[in-house]
């Protein structure tokens, strides 16, 4: 079994982006912890299956019989505790990194309800209204183009109505 730190130092498996900084390596390690927890749960389930009586095994379980069953249980429980130990080491390491980096608690805490992050990119000066303060240049352009489209459609409708009225007036004069 390879631990998280062993996988972390083995550069062949890791995308180079995860080796660019200590923080990136910690994030990668936490991703590996997630995988280790999945394996831990699978080991727990198979260990429980190995503890049951062989008579209760389903035909497709493919569980060993006799002494092999006990040996398999010992192997799986050993791997379970090794995995559990590597998980707690990785989590403690990540927490120590957070403490050492002195990351502000506000960066870790969830934002307040209803928080809308500012849009990325260049923004136009705001008139102070709360509905427009978090919009960027792209959003402003989309709104501008929408209003131009509405204006063009209304202008065409007005011209069509004026033309219709002019045609009716011409027909009444004839």
TrEMBL record:
Superkingdom of the organism of origin: Eukaryota
Pfam family, one: Med11
Cellular compartment(s): Nucleus
GO MF annotation, one: transcription coregulator activity
Principal cellular location given in the protein's record: nucleus
A single Gene Ontology CC term: mediator complex
InterPro entries: Mediator_Med11 (IPR019404)
Residue segments, region Disordered: 118-141
Keywords, sorted A to Z: Activator, Nucleus, Transcription, Transcription regulation
GO biological process, one term: regulation of transcription by RNA polymerase II
Gene3D superfamilies: 1.10.287.3490
Residue ranges that the Swiss-Prot or TrEMBL entry lists as coiled coil: none
Family: Belongs to the Mediator complex subunit 11 family.
Function: Component of the Mediator complex, a coactivator involved in the regulated transcription of nearly all RNA polymerase II-dependent genes. Mediator functions as a bridge to convey information from gene-specific regulatory proteins to the basal RNA polymerase II transcription machinery. Mediator is recruited to promoters by direct interactions with regulatory proteins and serves as a scaffold for the assembly of a functional pre-initiation complex with RNA polymerase II and the general transcription factors.
Oligomer status and interactors: Component of the Mediator complex.
Protein name: Mediator of RNA polymerase II transcription subunit 11
Lineage: Eukaryota, Fungi, Dikarya, Basidiomycota, Agaricomycotina
Name of the gene this protein is made from: MED11
